[in-house]
Amino acid sequence: MRNIFITRAVPDAAIELLRRGLPDAKIAVNPHNRNLSHAEIAEAACGADALICTLADPVDDALLRALAPALRIVATYAVGVNNIALGTARELGIAVCNTPDALTDATAEVAVGLMLACARRFVEGDALTRQGGFQGWAPMLLRGHGVYGKTVGIVGAGRIGKRVAQAMRLGFACQILYQARTAHADWQDELQAEQTGIEDLLARSDFVSLHCPLTPQTRHMIGAAALARMKPTAFLINTARGPVVDEAALVAALRDRRIAGAGLDVYEHEPELAPGLAALDNVVLLPHIGSATHEARDEMGRMCARAVVAVLTGQEPAHRVV
Ligand code: DGY
To answer: Could you read off the pLDDT of 88-105 as tens digits, one per residue?
Structure first.
């Protein structure tokens, strides 16, 4: 009998697909409404043929070695794979699959939403209105920055970055800059986008939107020096991974008004926030909900289930990272 362990409750769509594809498999799901520790996963998944994990689980070298040789696949309910020891998985012959594309639209929506919310001060306006501070229309009330026609810098020219660029170009006539080693013809042809280096992008953008994976090269890519290059009227948007930004440096830049504001969906030490961040009025904070639509989360679940069924029935899975 096959054993599948799932580290957090996932949409029914995934479980149904697993049951159809592997009718005699035993499927166990973390019964708690919280993330499991490393030791808890090691214990609960001991002997499992497949592990469906999330981006919050430390699927590191020690865990993979503890679960080998039974474990044949790790299917992560995410596109990012920075929490998984890919080298160890490769060495142990454990397949690693992710969920690209399923969350492109959803995450792009949150990035665009954060740009609007920051620039037009939605959260401050909501709080003021709820608290009875709206005393009637006034010419100087909550003036923000316009979005239409501004310059948007996209760091990480993958699927999500491109969808954000499309929305901002087609919806708001923005000029698009993107950071990439080589020019992408489709960005140029469809969006009249300009490829440039990170320093130039930071200096010219009104919105800097992060869409790169977390790697040793991108960790703390946005630190004090990068923030100092941004315009004082510019906003930083992060829907990628928290550690791409040095959060202490960001708090200092926001506090000193060295940039206009930030919209964050992800944090350096998630779910903890850097000291001082939550007290600032020029930052909009979301609890990592980039992919949190019914559509995206169902499809992410189905993609994990399809990957598990494929590997455990000897087929090649569609989205194999390792
Ligand atoms: C991912 O898939 O990497 C996202 O951060 C999940 O929302």
So the answer is: 999 999 999 999 999 999
Ligand 1 binding pocket mutation candidate from 79, 84, 110 (most atoms within 8 A of CB): 79
Per-residue pLDDT tens for 126-157? 999 999 999 999 999 999 999 999 999 999 99
Residues 18, 215: Cα–Cα separation, whole Å = 32
- Rounded Cα–Cα distance for residues 52 and 42 (Å): 13
Distance CA 168, CA 119 (A): 14
CA distance 110 to 254: 21
Top mutation candidate among 291, 299, 300 for ligand 1, by most atoms within 8 Å of CB: 291
Residue 213 beta carbon below 6 angstroms from any ligand 1 atom? no
CA distance 63 to 152: 40
Domain check: are 93 and 122 in the same one? no
66 CA to centre of ligand 1 in angstroms: 25
> pTM for the complete prediction?
0.97
Residue 76 alpha carbon to ligand 1 centre in Å: 10
Helices H, strands E: what count in the chain?
A: 12, 12
- Are 77 and 213 contained in the same domain? no
- Of all protein residues, the one whose alpha carbon is nearest to atom 1 of ligand 1 is 78
Shared domain for 92 and 121, answered yes or no, is no
The domain in which residue 35 lies consists of 3-101+294-312
